[in-house]
């Protein structure tokens, strides 16, 4: 069978002891640097890229894959332990992961993230090996109108993420979309809303925004509480590994997340991020079993599903890269950079001209996942020890790492001012009961959405009905409306009940 | 008519003002164009107007719909707010310097001591000089080892007037 033969080729390349060692070193370095708040996978890969120059191409890419997975998992670790999402895809993980950590269940949360990612990675690898060709066709069938519709669905999904009032969540998304537009407009080359500050020409940095809204606001809120109820984390830790009950809840969530992530990851441009948001939305909509913690208050499904979706998406996002030569996100763009350094031209021909490399890379992705789980399951105990450090030692350190992380992204003092500004904004938002997660998704999708909207309407000569006449886009929008109704209905029902009670 | 939810009223006001600022700016400074030929102002103008509307709705409901706890905003935690954000800003200024006003760079080590000291002030109960010095030294040594030693980041470590740059 083709699939098996291909995988065997891959294992022959990636499975040599020396390459396994590189994968291990990559994972280790990636995890260690990735857990520093503010330093996400992109920054980690960029920092460690020079270390791989001297290696043969296969080993270099294998090590980079290890770094990528390590950094990604490191990002999830900080999201769970200290509520700091290192990158866009771990924003959702903070919602339930951090709550679990506060309840003394950081161990199961970290294990769920790791195991879910590993499972998703395995499935993603098989999909990649089996269907790389046919799946890339999907990317062709999707036009600008469909992308737009897809993003609308994603944004409606973000509304569901917020547990607060619907209108506020929608307003936060719009605010995020607007913030995403700050900087240079790609179409006209004009800088917009930059207040004549040259540092804002490239837009607002994601790291500064996320660190301010999530990290600083959280610290200020914790310190605002009296020392007595500031028990940020319950003193007793309930076990390192998930219980059997946890596994039972986790498994279906992991399966759903993996399926969703695999499909959405194929789409170039933010597929993996959308996947993690969408997976969480689905989990939130599934009816709770008796005695189950609601999502947003520390449910293990809220960690397992988005982490699996994210990882499956990361895996299948290689499909557009390897088949079309289009890097779907910043990390993949760095991988392309690494390939060109080693004289490999990414694109459809890699598969035929250099099969050892192609399959070696795919298998090394899987090995990267495996190394990660081997490395990190025993390390969960170490990470959890961090939580027992008293808070008055913890918070200055978190502030410091945030500040250094933000500063080093662009070597700019301005970014540190920016993170302070968003820290203030984040505190105001929590005071007003507005949740920052939808804003962040709007921020990520803003520029892309404008781009696709422009293109779709240009092709349709300004006719808005194009979104309804194209079947795929119409279907997606219908899903969006349905989702919105699903969110609205319980609210209407409870309102009506309240009205009856008043009578 | 009285405000039934302070939180909602203020957030509605915030959304409406922000939306208005964005819409106003896009209408004045950028070309709007048409749906088929969108200028740089089109998308932000539409979003800004939607935000104005949403903010209006939120304010309206805050005046009409009863909330159980009155949606009280509550006290602002000035001390942690000022100290945490201030520590962060001071760190930035000391690390990179502010060339525009001729403020020299003091480097990573001084910046870490300043950040730790100011941040610890956020919590009156947890501040004491010994703790500050111990924590600063640990963080400074650790950061030097990780960021300068291992990652080889290009950060100024010592004050500019000592190193002579």
**Mean pLDDT of chain B, nearest integer?**
85
| N to C succession of SSEs of chain B | HHHHHH
Which structural class do the helices and strands of chain A define? mainly alpha
Low-confidence stretches of chain A: 499-503
In terms of quaternary structure, the protein is heterodimer
Q: Can you describe what's shown?
A:
The complex is a heterodimer of chains A (503) and B (165). By secondary structure, chain A is mostly helical. Chain A has one domain (2-502). Helices cover 75% and strands 1% of the residues of chain A. Chain A has a two-stranded antiparallel sheet with strand order 1-2. Chain A starts with a helix and ends with a helix. Residues 499-503 of chain A have low confidence and may be disordered. Chain B has two domains: 6-64; 78-163, no CATH class. Chain B is flat and about 60 Å long. With 165 residues, chain B is mostly helical. Helix content of chain B is 64%, strand content 0%. Chain B starts with 5 loop residues before the first helix and ends with a helix. Chain B is built from six helices and no strands. Classes of the chains: A mainly alpha (503), B mainly alpha (165). At the A-B interface, helix 8, helix 9, helix 17, helix 18 and helix 19 of A face helix 1, helix 2, helix 3, helix 4 and helix 5 of B.
């Amino acid at each position: 069978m083709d699939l098996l033969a291909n995988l065997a080729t891959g294992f022959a390349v990636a499975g040599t002891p020396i390459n396994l060692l590189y994968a291990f070193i990559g994972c280790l370095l990636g995890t260690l640097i990735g857990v520093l708040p503010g330093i996400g996978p992109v920054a980690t890969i960029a920092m460690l890229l020079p270390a791989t120059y001297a290696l043969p191409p296969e080993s270099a890419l294998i090590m980079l894959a290890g770094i990528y997975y390590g950094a990604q998992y490191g990002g999830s670790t900080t999201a769970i332990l200290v509520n700091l999402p290192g990158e866009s895809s771990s924003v959702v993980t903070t919602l339930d992961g951090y709550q679990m950590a506060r309840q003394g269940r950081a161990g199961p949360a970290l294990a769920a993230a790791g195991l879910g990612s590993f499972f998703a990675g395995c499935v993603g690898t098989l999909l990649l090996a089996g269907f790389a060709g046919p799946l890339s066709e999907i990317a062709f069938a999707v036009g600008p109108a469909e992308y737009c519709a897809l993003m609308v669905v994603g944004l409606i999904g973000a509304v569901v993420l917020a547990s607060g009032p619907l209108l506020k969540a929608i307003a936060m998304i719009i605010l995020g979309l607007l913030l995403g537009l700050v900087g240079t407009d790609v179409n006209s080359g004009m800088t917009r809303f930059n207040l004549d500050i040259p540092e804002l020409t490239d837009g607002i940095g994601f790291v500064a925004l996320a660190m301010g809204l999530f990290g600083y606001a959280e610290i200020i809120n914790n310190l605002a509480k009296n020392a007595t109820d500031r028990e940020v984390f319950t003193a007793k830790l309930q076990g390192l590994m998930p219980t059997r009950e946890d596994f039972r809840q986790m498994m279906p969530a992991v399966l759903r997340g993996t399926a969703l992530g695999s499909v959405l990851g194929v789409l170039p441009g933010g597929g993996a991020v959308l996947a993690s948001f969408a997976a969480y939305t689905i989990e939130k909509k599934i009816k709770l079993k008796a005695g189950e913690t609601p999502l947003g208050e520390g449910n293990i499904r809220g960690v397992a599903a988005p982490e699996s979706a994210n990882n499956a998406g990361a895996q299948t996002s290689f499909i557009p890269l390897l088949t079309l030569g289009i890097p779907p996100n910043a990390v993949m763009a760095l991988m392309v950079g690494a390939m060109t350094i080693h004289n490999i031209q990414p694109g459809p021909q890699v598969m035929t001209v250099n099969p050892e490399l192609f399959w070696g890379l795919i298998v090394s992705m899987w090995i990267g996942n495996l190394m990660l789980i081997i490395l990190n399951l025993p390390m969960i105990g170490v990470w959890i020890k961090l939580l027992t450090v008293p808070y008055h030692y913890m918070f200055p350190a978190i502030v410091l790492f945030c500040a250094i992380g933000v500063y080093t992204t662009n070597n700019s003092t301005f970014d540190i001012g920016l993170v302070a500004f968003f820290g203030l904004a984040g505190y105001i938002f929590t005071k007003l009961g507005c949740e920052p997660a939808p804003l962040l998704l709007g921020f990520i999708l803003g520029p892309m959405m404008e781009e696709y909207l422009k293109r779709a309407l240009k092709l349709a000569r300004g006719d808005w009905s194009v979104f309804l006449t194209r079947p795929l886009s119409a279907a997606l929008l219908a899903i969006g409306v349905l989702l919105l109704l699903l969110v609205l209905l319980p609210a209407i029902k409870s309102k009506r009940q309240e009205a009856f009670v008043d009578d | 008519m009285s405000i039934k939810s302070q939180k909602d009223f203020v957030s509605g006001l915030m959304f409406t003002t922000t939306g208005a600022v964005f819409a106003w700016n896009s209408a004045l400074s950028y070309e709007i164009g048409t749906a088929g030929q969108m200028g740089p102002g089109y998308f932000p103008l539409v979003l800004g107007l939607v935000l104005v509307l949403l903010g209006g709705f939120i304010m309206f409901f805050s005046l009409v719909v009863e909330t159980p706890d009155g949606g009280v905003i509550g006290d602002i935690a000035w001390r942690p707010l000022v100290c945490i954000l201030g520590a962060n800003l001071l760190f930035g200024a000391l690390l990179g310097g502010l060339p525009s006003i001729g403020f020299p760079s003091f480097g990573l080590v001084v910046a870490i001591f300043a950040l730790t000291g100011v941040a610890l002030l956020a919590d009156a109960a947890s501040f004491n000089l010994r703790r500050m010095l111990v924590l600063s030294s640990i963080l400074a040594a650790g950061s030097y080892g990780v960021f300068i030693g291992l990652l080889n980041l290009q950060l100024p470590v010592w004050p500019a007037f000592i190193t002579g740059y």
